[in-house]
Amino acid sequence: MNEENDLDLLTRLRKLIGRECEFLGKRCRLVEVLADQGVLILETRERLPPIQTNQYGQAAYRGNDTIQVPIFGPDRSLFSDEIMDLFANLVAPGKDPASGPA
User: Fold this and answer.
1) Residue 55, burial from CB neighbour count under 10 angstroms (0-12, 13-18, 19+)
2) Containing H/E element for 22?
3) What is the mean pLDDT of residues 24-52?
4) Backbone phi, then psi, for 39, in 5-degree steps?
5) Cα gap 83→67, rounded to integer Å
6) Rama region for 100: left / alpha / beta (φ>0; ψ in -120 to 50; rest)
7) Torsion angle of alpha carbons 84, 65, 13, 38, nearest 10°?
8) pTM recorded for the entire structure
């Protein structure tokens, strides 16, 4: 892909921020597109988030996990398998995520 196409793609991906999806069997929400690293950041949306620890290993608070999804495959000419799976499982805006993809 060339630089102009990459910029167009990243602009389109940023419009998806906030959308719900299912990824690797987990309900998630797209929260960020990191263009310089070529990844999407998903936040898991579990009913009860896991316990996060402080720097001493003690339970501190509950917070959602994040998942990094590569946008491109190894040669940057194709999308990664992970992002293709993500696209297939995006939920339409305003639709209940439990009812399946858009």
Assistant:
1) exposed
2) strand 20-23
3) 88
4) -135, 155
5) 12
6) left
7) -80
8) 0.73
